[in-house]
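re: ur question from earlier - yeah i can do the single chain one, its not a big deal. heres the input i used so u can compare w yours
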Amino acid sequence: MTDETNMLRQLRSNGNPVIGSGKAVICWEGEDPPQLLADHIGWNRDQAAQMSRLSERLWVYQAELPADSYIEYAFCKGDERIIDPHNPQITPNGLGQYNNYFSMPEYRSSTWHHKLKGIPQGEISKMRLPSHGLVTDSSRTVHLYHPPVDYPVPLVIVYDGNEYLQRTRLPVIMDNLIAAGKIQPLALAMINNSKRYRFMEYSCADATLFYLLEVVLPYAHHNLNLIDIDTHPGAYGILGASLGGLMALYTLLRLPKIFGRGLCQAGAYSVEGFDFPVWDLLEGIRGTDARIWMDCGRFDWLIEANRRMASVLSDLAIPFHFHEINAGHNYPTWRDCLPHGLEFLYPSNAS
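and the output i got, formated as tokens:
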């Protein structure tokens, strides 16, 4: 049996990619192959992989990957993005398009985001809050998660709240972790981002912090049963990914008497060689009760900035944990890391 015949048989039987012996072979049937973009090779067109001809109508790209990798990829021809006809697994890329994805044999997705029957469930409420000119748009949607308990709890502010609500199913994760006794009950205020001005609002913007103080926190205090932050300084948490992860750390550094727990996923602490102000503020948390969780994919373009941040936090003797996974820059990766981060920051035996 020829290599081509064997590859086609596996492709048509099991779909893309053909996986074996620590390798993933992504295939394309047709006269003209597309370019390939993927987590492990980068998402810029100038980084696109060229597929190799195996036969007249079969083209392949082969990669050696860690056995527990999760990979997203896309075929492109010019400006056209093409869904892989041999892979039904697709996921939103956050930009109005879809990526195909696959995983290597030892990858295990978290199940904490799967809704369970028979456990207490929190409630979700929604409000459009006025911006008062502090952030862009005339108003901003905020979703509140009310945990299924009747006593005061800490609050966690969530940047890109709409994404965490829909793409990670964060309230479901909260219900499951609380019911399993993995974390103490927490309330959430999930703030929708500004699609157009997200970079401006999340690149260490004090206007965003002022919006939290003047609009979001008063609304949360009025509608949630929260512990007194004056009695428990630093008890509130802050969560975000990418630019939201940068803004989460910045919020903790600027407002430490309120936010002492940071869950920063693939934080964009440095972009194209530019260091954001968080680096200059780090010394200020030495000796505080701050606690920080960081996670980032090893194929993420922000991995070196995150490793550098972890090194600085270690030098400052700040309680933190940095978790690396064999994945890229995407919400399925962050969703799988969320339960670990929440348990690290708010274990069930915390006072």
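Residues 91 and 321 are 28 Å apart (CA to CA). not sure if urs matches, ping me
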